[in-house]
Design a protein that fits this description.
- This protein is of the alpha+beta class.
- Among the domains are: 104 residues, no CATH class; 244 residues, no CATH class.
- The protein is 36% helix and 15% strand.
- The chain is built from 19 helices and 20 strands.
- The strands form seven sheets. Strands 6-5-8-9 form a four-stranded mixed beta sheet, with helices on one face. The protein has a four-stranded antiparallel beta sheet with strand order 10-11-7-12.
- It is globular and about 65 Å long.
């Protein structure tokens, strides 16, 4: 069943009344608008948990309304980051970072990266999840990115042409279009600077990269990510940082560091000074040297790369790791207490001040509000701890009043989970939130752990119906995200997108051999591989767009949490696996049925 958004719009929710309810639950008086200025009180777990929630709950709230103050702060931060990079570039060019410490940093980076290989990068070339200079966000899917004339910067043009020839189906779709031959690519000076929501105070500036630049950048970034795993840095998992933050809050042995505007303060000369030549040349070739502001003005970047670049996250993590390791241990050793995930750093407390000094020397700016080297509190990668206890708050990021019903589900469920962790009774407050939903959705339908498609609650409150074809399942109706066709047209790039990764598109003499400049394959070969199968394009599904629908899911009656909540408490249920979704059906499998 599909509904229009306004048929599920929430009415009667007030941000101010919600903050008042949080104040009642925590016993903390909120300070400032929506409690955002409430000071962190670390005298006890309850006060730390409550004051942190009040100060953070609406700190990332974005009502979608234009704000002159937010606009001013956004661009002030952008130009501040550029000024920091300019000063770093001047210092490095004048001979800074030439002592033995920075030689150690360079050695560690070279040892971690190893030899550069375009072959290795080519295995990971891919699109990013967002828009590009040519493709708007509404058409951010691979089908549209593989269609039309791709764009790239002049410095990346030779590499871009090689890439197109490397994938015959894509090259033929670009050059030999049904409407007539076209140019293989279009050169642009750089990326486009845009804003995305960050907090109630400021937006975040990111860049939309040209198509071929981001495609190649993602490949290089993925290789750096794989190489970092060899030195115990896993950028696919935040848990190590989080557990280190917990340990630091328990015994004070580890400090957490957060950097302000980290991605925007990786200066050009810093990267040139620290990276091996072959890596620097590759990264520099596919970066965007210029950015276009919303006003149309052109900026010559002082930074090496910005947020939106496909390797920025991996590059900054590599540099931070090398600096932290060089401070903490001798050249031929690794300190496994050092944890790095982007600009979230964890280092031994005894080296905390020196690490901060070296980061500042490299042009980075530690965020004093999120950096902790003493006391019982630590935070890293979204997890907050007080003396080893998880006091992580939840956030309200989008308007609930007049918004979709699933947002009301989320704030209710997050409050329920937060109260459960802190041992706080909030039945009355949760009931008030449920009363704001349409009558058919007010009763809890789900136990915790199986999503936020409805209100969660204890088993004796759940609305559960037996499955008509089997006693071992309950049926539950939830709001969920479904898929529908984005647009009626079917771009030629959908065929290319469906073939990428198959032997058809990468069947080249000699196998993997991505070495610019690559000779152009014969037109006869391209034609036989691409256009002989274009009849299949009508049967290829178009990229989807998310919509909210009502879906019926099946929940096993053997769910251990359900039985334990009604007091059965059999120890055998502890052996059942945690909930997980079956990819082949809508069934939520939770162990074996009773």
């Amino acid at each position: 069943m599909r509904k229009r958004w306004n048929e599920w719009a929430v009415k009667g929710f007030s941000n101010e009344r919600f903050v008042t309810a949080l104040s009642t639950l925590t016993g903390i008086t909120p300070v400032g608008t929506l409690g955002r200025d409430t000071p962190l009180d670390l005298r006890s777990e309850a006060r730390a948990r409550g004051s942190l929630l009040l100060s953070e709950c609406f700190s990332k709230y974005d009502d979608g309304k234009p704000s002159e103050a937010k606009e001013t702060e956004t661009w002030r931060r952008f130009w501040e980051a550029e000024d920091l990079c300019k000063r770093t570039n001047e210092r490095v060019s004048a001979g800074a970072l030439r002592d033995a410490f920075w030689a150690n940093v360079r050695f560690r980076i070279q040892a971690a990266l190893g030899r550069f290989s375009w072959d290795a990068c080519a295995e990971h070339f891919a699109w990013g999840p967002g828009s590009t200079t040519r493709i708007p966000y509404s058409k951010r899917f691979a089908a549209y990115k593989y269609s039309g004339t791709p764009e790239c910067t002049p410095g990346n043009a030779a590499l871009g042409r090689t890439l197109l020839r490397y994938i015959p189906a894509w090259n033929h779709a670009v050059v030999y279009r049904p409407e007539g031959p076209g140019l293989p690519l279009r050169e642009v000076l750089g990326n486009s600077i845009v804003k995305v929501p960050k907090s109630y105070k400021t937006d975040r500036t990111i860049a939309k990269e040209p198509c071929l630049n981001i495609y190649i950048q993602k490949g290089i970034g993925r290789v750096i990510r794989h190489r970092l795993k060899r030195v115990n840095v896993d950028l696919d998992d935040q848990e190590r940082n989080q557990q280190a933050a917990r340990l630091g809050s328990l015994d004070g042995s580890l400090a957490t560091i957060d950097l302000s505007m980290a991605s925007d303060t990786v200066a050009f000369e810093l990267v040139s000074n620290l990276l091996p030549n072959e890596w620097w040349y590759a990264l520099e070739q596919c970066r965007s040297p210029y950015g276009t502001l919303p006003s149309g003005d052109l900026v010559h970047y002082q930074k090496f790369s910005s947020m939106g670049n496909g390797y920025t996250f991996e590059l900054e993590s590599l540099i931070f790791w090398a600096i932290c390791q060089s401070v903490c241990c001798p050249l031929d050793e690794l300190d496994y207490r050092v944890c790095v995930y982007g600009d979230d750093l964890v280092v031994p407390t005894e080296h905390f001040k020196t690490v901060v000094e070296r980061l500042e020397e490299a042009g980075f700016k530690p965020n004093s509000k999120k950096t902790f080297g003493s006391g019982p509190y630590r935070e890293s990668c979204g997890k907050h701890f007080w003396k080893g206890r998880d006091i992580t708050p939840f956030y309200v990021k989008k308007p609930i009043q007049g918004g979709r019903l699933d947002r009301l589900f989320l704030v209710h469920n997050n409050l329920a989970r937060w109260c459960e962790r802190g041992g706080i009774l909030a039945h009355g407050h949760l009931r008030v939130i449920r009363e704001l939903a349409p009558s058919t959705w007010r009763r809890p339908r789900l136990p915790d752990g199986v999503g936020d498609g409805a209100f969660i609650g204890p088993v004796d409150q759940l609305r559960l119906d037996s499955h008509p074809h089997g006693w071992e399942y309950w049926q539950v109706k939830v709001l969920t995200v479904s898929k529908r066709d984005l647009l009626d047209e079917l771009p030629i790039g959908q065929l290319v997108a469906s073939l990428i990764g198959s032997p058809l598109t990468r069947l080249l003499p000699g196998g993997w051999d991505f070495k610019p400049p690559f000779p152009a394959p014969s037109r006869a070969g391209e034609s036989s591989q691409t256009w002989d199968i274009t009849e299949r394009i009508a049967a290829t599904p178009v990229d989807p767009l998310d919509v909210l629908v009502v879906e019926t899911i099946n929940l096993e009656k053997g769910h251990k949490d359900l039985w334990q909540e009604v007091g059965l408490g059999f120890s055998a249920f502890d052996l059942l696996p945690i909930p997980n979704y079956d990819a082949d059906s809508s069934l939520i499998r939770v162990g074996e049925p009773l």
